[in-house]
Amino acid sequence: MVFDLNLIQKTYNELPTKVDAARKALGRPLTLAEKILYSHLWKGVELTDFERGKAYVDFAPDRVAMQDATAQMALLQFDTTGRKQVAVPSTVHCDHLIVAKNESTVDLKKAVTENEEVYEFLSSISNKYGIGFWKPGAGIIHQVVLENYAFPGGMMIGTDSHTVNAGGLGMVAIGVGGADACDVMAGLSWELLMPTLIGVKLTGKLSGWASPKDVILKVAGILTVKGGTNAIVEYFGEGATSMSCTGKGTICNMGAEVGATTSTFGYDESMSRYLKATGRAAVAEAADAVKAHLTGDPEVYANPEKYFDRVIEINLTELEPHINGPYTPDLATPISQMKEAAAKNNWPTKVEVGLIGSCTNSSYEDISRAVSLAKQVSEKGLKTKAEFTITPGSELVRYTIDRDGFLDTFAQIGATVFANACGPCIGMWDRMGAEKQERNTIVHSFNRNFSKRADGNPNTLAFVASPEIVTALAIAGDLTFNPLTDSLINEKGESVKLDPPSGDELPSRGFEAEDAGYQAPAEDGTTVQVSVKSDSKRLQLLYPFPTWKGQDLKGLKLLIKAKGKCTTDHISMAGPWLKFRGHLDNISNNMLIGAINFFNEKTDSVKNQLTGEYGTVPLTQRAYKAAGIGSLVVGDENYGEGSSREHAAMEPRHLGVSAVLVKSFARIHETNLKKQGMLALTFSNKEDYTKIQEDDNIDIVGLTSFTPGKPLHLVLNHKDGSIETLEVLHSYNEQQIEWFKSGGALNVIRANSI
Ligand code: MIC
Ligand code: SF4
Question: H or E element: which one contains 736?
Fold first, then answer.
């Protein structure tokens, strides 16, 4: 089934004129990213050369995708806008709430029972508002989007940071918070800071053990977790065209791990092949007709330094497989240096579990290459040393790899197949023994490896590698095994080497699935009832946040000064908390419980300034709220890194935190805070972080003349009676200041729809 062919055709019909106009207005050849951005300007936006990294621009995305853990909040917000239908094609995907424990069928059944209320809510609200609904078990949002909806040259937003995966099919696809999705579904424009452009030129060709995953693992090492902030990464060159479409998806997917707004590739043969293999020959044909507009101009790629803000070159022929981690996805170690790195850092070298799959790496190609290694276990008389698990990205992939015998081969090495869902990637892994908190090593082909992310154990060291390398390391049971050079001793005591992986880009017999798990919405949803029980523990209707009182904020207490890495996983943990994603008050009980308090180096232990006693972060904040006192959260660099979850912004808002002041923000989180009517501030002088003391009483002044580009000031009233004033910066534009004053963007939409 081809979804929304008319929409795609319409985009392509208008593309040549729009791209020509942009080329003319900018007076130079265009990158692909610019072609897509400029052809998606919101109606009436004047076409000029928007300053990269400075100008806020209104766009008109073609579609919206949401996953169940974020869709609940997005749709609870949408439900309050008074709209009858979504304004652009939108979908919901049930993938985050399924716990991986035993195996696919058992786990899925359990999830369907446990999450019945939430699935029923999402299914009926989708039905009501004209949203396509993908049932639990259908697959992970990004894989399903790549298989069904993504199209070259399109623009989409999604309530998940890995929405960027669709760049593998030549889209500009961007992760956002639910409030942004709500705007677009309500028929409003979507605002984005005009990104800077990073060009990655890929020369040579991948071979042997190297795979697309290694490209992004290397890029992550170069750019680090914040090097891509507010940038679009555009890949080009012979190395790009020689790679599969799904491989490109993997690279774009993990662009989220360098903080990039998104990543993309120009339309090529690999994309056409993928579109055809997934039943979309008509889309490939339509794209072929405008293909010059679906890639960067030749002058740009011939002379990239002139057109991109930064250019990185990677020679794929020389690329070595990498293993990134632990605890951060940018700690990149080429496989030949792992022995040394592990010894130096004292990482446990025994691999306990190898996990492949997830939205990042579960293409047919990935699985077939991994299976070529699994086959060698019996052929070479080996025994797999580590546990091994697979989480297929979609039912289409699962059914096909089952049909082609791959799952049988994996079964022979003792593998467990989990449901087509996020599972261990997001802490929905009921791993036996994890509660003992033993120090141990796992290797996976997912994208993130922050502390506690996979199994909740802070002492699990998770390393990220390609599915091929994960499989090889699981067979060897050893993190320092380098399959390119090392041998293994088999059951007969012989020394054997693994042959390099080989596989098929696409299934020679085609993709197949008996039931892909899609539910189309009702033609007319006006009579569909959506109910939320008032005593529900899982769902809670939203109330409008209070508006700004028109005065400076005085007498705020310091809630926490977070030390070091503070990702959205630290601010609003996932795993067991995912079940409260539709209930703001309940999920607020996880607010910042993973952040390290600078003053005592502990998690979830902060001083309650009203009593002088230490308590949990949520309870301390609830005490301030009850006393009618505002508070401040202070953070380090790249605060809010990682996911798109707006709960990380809504929880502090709901519990009465007034402002968040950090050295720097991750893009999505900063926007989420603004959308919810919070103050998101950065130190003008990063050293001032040291001036914030545990017992400070804080004033934020300058709000009565809150203006774009004009700093605000923070007055620190220290306990010893001394006072310090700091300059703090913000990036609010006029509209965002309006959100702040109105108590949140949703209040503005509501006011306008009455
Ligand atoms: C993730 O990978 O961290 C998630 C879970 O998919 C999140 C979304 C969420 O928190 O619901 C993301 O990346 O945006
Ligand atoms: Fe799911 Fe993990 Fe992908 Fe996020 S990164 S969508 S949790 S599989």
Answer: helix 734-742
